[in-house]
Amino acid sequence: MNHFPWLTIIVLFPISAGLVIPFFTFYRKQNYSMVYFRYYNWISFINFHWRLGIDGFSIGLILLTGFITTLATLAAWPVTRNPRLFYFLMLAMYSGQIGLFASQDILLFFFMWELELLPVYLLLAMWGGKRRLYAATKFILYTAAGSLFILIGGLIMAFYNSNESTFDFQLLINKTYPLELEIIVYLSFLIAYAVKLPIIPFHTWLPDTHGEAHYTYGLIRINMELLPHAHSFFAPWLVILGAIQIVYAALTSLSQRNLKRRIAYSSVSHMGFVLIGIGSITNLGLNGAILQMISHGLIGASLFFLAGISYDRTRTLVLDQMGGIGTSMPKIFTLFSSCSMASLALPGMSGFIAELMIFLGVIDNPNYSFLFKIIIIIIQGIGIILTPIYLLSMLRQMFYGYKFSNTLTPYLMDAGPREIFILICLFFPIISIGIYPNFVLSIWNSKVNFLLSNNFF
Description:
Blueprint: H1 6-19, H2 25-29, E1 35-43, E2 48-54, H3 56-76, H4 83-102, H5 106-127, H6 132-159, H7 169-172, H8 179-196, H9 206-209, H10 216-226, H11 228-254, H12 259-280, H13 283-314, H14 330-343, H15 350-364, H16 370-399, H17 417-435, H18 438-452
Antiparallel strand pairs: 1-2
Helix pairs in contact: 3-4, 3-13, 3-17, 3-18, 4-5, 5-6, 6-8, 8-10, 8-11, 11-12, 11-16, 12-13, 12-15, 12-16, 13-14, 13-15, 13-17, 13-18, 14-16, 14-17, 15-17
């Protein structure tokens, strides 16, 4: 009993317990409403409350965050330099992300947004790559500047036309604003999300940081739910911006010779589909956007992890120096190819269902003209064609042909049991969602219907 892994059991038990929440019949039926589990009057003179809750929309992202963070911690093992600080920062980052998704107070939302920045900055600066200080500094400058717009927008909403401030989401839903003011507030939040999503042209920090966050959550939770009239005004522009982002980022990814930068720009391209789904203001489109957020969270994590273990073996990220490594690392080659197929939306995988729903969602909107729909669909189609081009060329440069450089390690070790276990854990839900998407769509579908019942123009 002295060697029984009590700490492991304690950590994994709440994760395992959380995974069964969506299976409760009562929760599925009531997932359009908010379930509060923590309420505390924190700073009374400004009505700032510690108000946390979950619904069908947030539970999916909370479970995804816990799942990815657990696997990321296992992927980083063993940490040889300052392991205690590393794991503390990982948990602090995780706490900020969970708090963000569960926040039901707009000032608490901003607080959790800021809470995440410091541990991410320290993780990048201390355990990042060769340009870690540059990447970390660029990340903190961009995101801190974007955060200011959340605070401005939140304060306007809280103090407008009221004797006392209110930051409660449930009360802010019932507030009305002049359309001009609502557009200004919407734009303020949109700038902040444009930095963190990222949306072009605020995307330049991402390739250096090699990561992404699903801050489209805020675009739906605050902009769409609390500011429906302004969302109706900006919706076609979101669709246009998303379509441009798909093609621009795909072309940029194709030109990259660095493996991680190619995957990073691929992430920017896939987030364009999320923008189109949110801008469609239809049941199919919005469900597809949320599914794309979940899907790409899994696919993006697997591709970045594979890039990391490839670098550990070859000690290079330059694609032209990786030719022919498929014969030395057949397991990594198989797993990399499978995850790349998922990223290019192969039928039977989660990305295909998400992008198909977004396609149909744009067509389903009666307020968009026929010409507008045709143009957006053609641009989306170009992006879908470009995706296999840059992903398959990446696989060809890495695993096929002859070695371009003699600097590679003569013997390349293939994937070990720990790495295979992590990738199977990521790939299994990708396949499961692709085969039976209703398994997850039913979790938030009622919430989507509730959102679409708002007074959109």
